[in-house]
Amino acid sequence: MRTASLCRLLLIGLQASLSTQRHCPKSSTARPDYPTRQIANVTVIDTPLVQDALAFARQHSDNTVWNHIMRSWLFGSLILQNNPELRAAVDPEVHAVAAILHDLGFDETPGSPIISLDRRFEVDGAIAARNFIRRHMDGKAWEERRVQLVWDAIALHTLPNIYSYKETEVMVMGQGINMDFSGPTNNVSQTQYNAVLHDFPADNFPASVTSKFVWLCHIKPATTYGKLLC
After folding, report:
1. Residue 188: exposed, middle, or buried by beta-carbon count in 10 A (0-12, 13-18, 19+)?
2. Are 132 and 56 in contact (CB under 8 A)?
3. How far is the C-alpha of 165 from the C-alpha of 174, rounded, in Å?
4. How far apart are CA 132 and CA 140, in angstroms?
5. How far apart are CA 200 and CA 100, in angstroms?
6. Is the predicted pLDDT of residue 17 greater than 90, yes or no?
């Protein structure tokens, strides 16, 4: 009887241990010592791939969208900067590339190869980002899972009821973008938030967003039904 009770206690202890392991964040694998720099008092990754993603996004963005992209990236980076446990679980290059390229689907350049007439703008952006990574000298070395995380983060960035339950990189990128609409959250202080706004102003941002949505409803209305657009 005593032996059976002891076995039950050991089994309960083992189950509790396994449950704890399942729900703890995965420990990060060894990563390169990425170069960094400071933008608006935020420490960000500064690899050649990130630099080229910035150049590519700038080429396909007007001034208002560009500032939104930068704010979104920096707000996400602040979420990570202020949360060491979360920072250890996130691939900073995946987060950066996804955030920087998340609005490629807003490219209004006439004849843009990014824009389709039959896909949601988020999917256009996700496909363009994936193509960019696969063409890039450093991106060619990426594991497919990293590419897929970028694709998912961009494709789902307007759907918090989905991205909140995805991988950490996907979730944090979505939260950083959402912060540009909601104000500071996730332990980001008002002072930190204002420093980003100072360097990348949100002037005319609401009107610009409305204009982009009207453009999408005009060029591909079937992709906008059931969304926040039309």
Report:
1. buried
2. yes
3. 11
4. 10
5. 14
6. no
Angle between helices 168-182 and 92-100 (to 10 degrees): 40
Structural domains in the chain? 40-223 (1.10.3210)
- Residue 20 has a CB neighbour count (10 Å cut-off) of 9
Task: Annotate 104-165 with DSSP letters as a single string.
Answer: GGG---TT-TT--SSS-HHHHHHHHHHHHHHHSTTGGGS-HHHHHHHHHHHHTTT-HHHHTT
The residues near 108 (Cβ < 8 Å, ≥ 6 apart) are 62, 212, 215
Indicate the Cα dihedral angle 193, 179, 96, 82, nearest 10°.
60
Contact in structure between 216 and 223 (CB atoms under 8 Å): yes
**Residue 26 exposure: Cα atoms within 13 Å on the Cβ side:** 8
Q: Confidence band (pLDDT; 50, 70, 90) for 229? A: low
How far apart (Å, rounded) are the C-alpha atoms in residues 141 and 146? 10
Name every residue whose Cβ is closer than 8 Å to that of residue 225 and which is 6 or more positions away in sequence: none
CA distances from 9 to 18, 19, 22, 124, 160 (A): 14, 15, 20, 55, 41
- pLDDT digit string (tens) for 59-87? 999 999 999 999 999 999 999 999 999 99
What is the torsional sign of CA 213, 216, 221, 226? negative
